[in-house]
Amino acid sequence: MVDANSSPQILEHLSKQLQHTCFDTKWVPSSARFVSVGSNPRDTGNLSVYELDGSELKCLKEEEKKVSFKCATFGHASLSHRTLATGDFHGNLAVWDLEKSAHPAWTTKAHVNIINAIDGFGGQTRGCGAPEIATCGRDGRVCIWDPRQRDAPVAALEPESADAARDCWCVSFGNAHNNDDRCVLAGYDNGDVKLFDLRVNAVRWETNVKNGVCSVLFDRKDIEMNKVSVCCLESRFHVFDMRTKHPQKGYACLTENAVANSTIWGCEWLPQNREVCMVRSGDGGLSLYRYHYPDQRRLQDAEGLHYGVPGSMTLEANRQISTQPVCSFDWSPDKEGLCVMASFDQCLRVGVVTKTGKI
After folding, report:
1. How far apart, in whole angstroms, are the C-alpha atoms of residue 169 and residue 58?
2. Most buried of 2, 67, 131, 299, CB within 10 angstroms?
């Protein structure tokens, strides 16, 4: 007999009903706190800080700002400062000191209109380059910012023309395994996926997955490219093996259909195990998957050229957590299995995924 308790379970630990819409949630590094950013009913921004206190979820701070927030990251920040970078609906990038958050530490007009996504890297690592922030927007631009150089982006990846610009929905740092190498992955509304090499400031690889790309993410940012997830409209997500690129075929790709027939909003890799990921869907469901590598990740074709071999995915657990899309999800970098999420039913939830170490 199989013991059901030996399998991972997705549990709701705490929840809080909100009076505003939350668009993003992020754990404050090395703490039991997290932030949520979003929009109040009168179209102003909401920035809140919460703390886990035993069996309670305490709101330590809730502030109203002029413009609604869309996204946030701590990735650029050192553990000694832990500043929060946000992108808003008017295209503003701002960096906040949470201890003195009445006004931003600095802000700049990063995009013409809404910043759809933001990512940061370099603040908490050594030997992996400068602390930087990546933003993407409806104007089709992907911009790289260094908080130490505030006047202009250190790199701007522009569409060929304003008429040809596609809405860029998501962005992610990766391949930052030394001081020189770093890549940015971006996904667009027409299904385009582009990998920008910041070392040479050029497109290193691109493909089209035939559906709007809601999320892109490296399984780990601070290693040589290993694999990336690409989540799409119409209940489909892809995992590309980034270790071997064939001159004609490109990277090997595994395509998986979601449990529910709905948009895949994101796929977040577990920080403590990069083969485990949580997939969140438009029907309010969460699905825990494990990636399995093939026996051989690289083979040779008839011409002697190497090509990659995709792996496979197994569904380890799934749970209906809401009746509305799960719009944000963040694993705790410090406590394995602990997570925070928000959904469009205006509910904030802290969850626990059990037995992730045994998958």
Report:
1. 32
2. 131
Contact 297, 306 (CB under 8 A): no
Q: Would strands 10-17 and 21-27 be described as parallel, antiparallel, or unpaired?
A: unpaired
**CB-based burial label for 172 (10 Å; 0-12, 13-18, 19+):** buried
| b/e per residue 183-213 (b: at least 16 CB within 10 A) | bbbbbbbebbbbbbebeeeeebbebebebbb
> Using CB atoms within 10 A of its CB, is residue 23 exposed (0-12), middle (13-18) or buried (19+)?
buried
What are the pLDDT tens digits along the chain (359 aa)? Answer: 334 567 899 999 999 999 999 999 999 999 999 999 999 999 999 999 999 998 899 999 999 999 999 999 999 998 888 999 999 999 999 999 999 988 999 999 999 999 999 999 987 777 788 899 999 999 999 999 998 888 899 999 988 877 778 999 999 999 999 999 999 999 999 999 999 999 999 999 999 999 999 999 999 999 999 999 999 998 899 999 999 999 999 999 999 987 778 899 999 999 999 999 999 999 999 999 999 999 999 999 999 999 999 999 999 999 999 999 999 999 999 999 999 999 999 999 999 999 998 88
Q: What is the DSSP string of 278-304?
A: EEEETTSEEEEEEEE--S-SEEE-TTS
CB count within 10 Å of CB 341 equals 25
- Both structure tokens of 124: 């908490």
Q: Would the pTM of this model clear 0.90, i.e. be above it?
A: yes
- Overall fold of domain 11-358: Methylamine Dehydrogenase; Chain H (2.130.10)
Q: How far apart are CA 203 and CA 184, in angstroms?
A: 10
